[in-house]
Amino acid sequence: METYTSIPEDLKLAVLEKVKPTEAERKILTVVQEELAAEVTAAAEKLCVSDIFVKMVGSAARGTWLSGTHDIDVFISFPEETHRRDLEISGMAIAREVAKHAEHAEDRHAEHPYLNIVFKGFDVDLVPCFRVASACQLKSAVDRTPFHNEFVKTHIKGREDDVLLMKQFMRGGGVYGSELRTQGFSGYLTELLIIHYGSFENAVKAACIWRPGQKIDIMQHSEMGHTEPLVIVDPTDPKRNVAAALSLDRFCMFIDHCREFLANPELKFFFSALVLPLEDKELLEKLDSRKSSQLAVVFKTPDVVEDVLYPQLYKMEQAAAALLNEYDFSVIKTGVWSGKPETVIMLELISGTLPNVKKRIGPPVWVREHSEKFKAKYEEAENVFGGYIENGKYVFEIQRKYPTAKGLLEEQLVNCSLGKQVHQSVSEGFEVIEDAEVCRLKDPDFRVFLRKWL
Ligand SMILES: Nc1ccn([C@@H]2O[C@H](COP(=O)(O)OP(=O)(O)OP(=O)(O)O)[C@@H](O)[C@H]2O)c(=O)n1
Ligand SMILES: [Mg+2]
């Protein structure tokens, strides 16, 4: 095994200088949190809702938020015996009352509704939850969050800087965020890694030798088997894997990021370099040197939240690749880019065209019944180039139904198994553009995607 030098102190300080909130920033956050708590209490009193508690949760309440990220999670906790409907109605009524003093408000929906508001420049979630006795007795998925908060607050003391370093390091590696778009590491997961390994440096060193099946159970209370690449048992709920949303590729990207960083600890591992949009000229040069086929399936982006959209796009990416493979096209790789107004599924193929002739291999000649049927079918069929015996089997050279990948996608893509909103949008219309035609897609963010793609 390679031996690594320690991470230089001045490198950590240089990162913290950029990502650690200043005293002034902390003060503002505290003041806004206090104002929000007072607003919620006042709203509850006004609406005659008694017995609710206001709880500040998330990284803002734990001192583990990155400077410049301005989200505050406010939980409005109701007695456990409250009916779900009452919780939703009263919780949302309180949230809407608070929103009267906000710059912007938007209804969101997880397992039950909550309100997202912009309050004094902060991105605030007002989330009603049940006050359950323990996280494993949850009535709603969000009920665990206050327990996470207590656990982290009591165990993280003095190691907040290590959390900030780890969050930023994961950002630099493109693996931070548990949303379904990224399928990476959540904030809580990052905090648990620091609690378990004791420091940023220890965690990074440990991850270099992780393999799928790695399990961390801080409370030693899990009896469950899990199949995910990384299992971090929730200290507040033995049945939950905090890393359940982490994909195998993000898991491995993190391992790789840790190894590369320790071999050469530099600032660039925390702050990835700005990628410039790919120009037409560069695009044409790349296409010319790769000599593969590029196909872009372009359609209108469905108007749904990212957590609904991305799983459907990843499903479509898989479905398109499977369709192409089924019809003999060799797929090199697939990718997804989504913006407004358009979404693009990129497909790189060994070739987008195949010969008109397709070889159909039949049964061995000595399996009399089947082979005679096979022979009779193709001898009479139209568009057959010819037939012969090869390795004891009848072989016919027939006309290929889809000699171009573009033609195949145009005709068959809508029949693939696609998610609801993506299917709806694709049914309304889509376009398949090829190779140099991709120059038509000008969105700068798409061109950034293309630079990494080619
Ligand atoms: N996949 C998720 C997302 C969120 N949470 C809970 O909801 C809280 C708030 O979520 P979020 O704002 O996404 O994460 P933070 O921990 O606040 O981290 P960040 O600094 O990225 O905001 C988390 O701390 C965690 O307790 C969770 O359990 N599982
Ligand atoms: Mg947060």
TrEMBL record:
Pfam families per the UniProt record, alphabetical: CAA_C, NTP_transf_2, tRNA_NucTransf2
Record: residues binding ATP: S59, R62, H148, K167, Y176
GO biological process: RNA repair; tRNA 3'-terminal CCA addition
Annotated CTP binding sites: S59, R62, H148, K167, Y176
CCA-adding enzyme C-terminal domain location: 292-434
HAMAP family, per database record: CCA_arch (MF_01264)
Entry protein name: CCA-adding enzyme
Organism of derivation: Methanosarcina lacustris Z-7289
Lineage: Archaea, Methanobacteriati, Methanobacteriota, Stenosarchaea group, Methanomicrobia
